[in-house]
């Protein structure tokens, strides 16, 4: 399983106790401008992260998004660092 560690440059920006807010802030920094990232908290340390992109179809009147990436992550705060372990089944 792959693990990702994020070190907070400014810990005052987001409280360290709120894992979901820190996870949303992390994915907000790495997403592309035309993407939407949805973070759903499943349990205290497990999150479902879906990345959606706008589907360009000239026949559609409404905007249509489709899921381009879906992950199931285990997230922990270890001494101020956000540690994410990808637990997605492939």
- What is the name of the CATH topology? TATA-Binding Protein
Helix and strand pattern: EHEEEE
Instruction: List the domain count as a whole number.
Output: 1
Which value, in Å, is the CA radius of gyration? 15 Å
The percentage helix is: 10-25%
CATH class: Alpha Beta
Q: Please, what is the average pLDDT?
A: 82
Determine the number of helices (DSSP H or I, runs of at least 4 residues): 1
- Largest sheet at a glance? 5 strands, antiparallel
Query: Largest beta sheet: what is the strand line-up?
Result: 1-5-4-3-2
Residue fraction in strands: over 45%
Structural class estimated from helices and strands? mainly beta
- CA distance, first residue to last residue: 11 Å
Low-confidence stretches: 8-16
User: Which CATH architecture?
Assistant: 2-Layer Sandwich
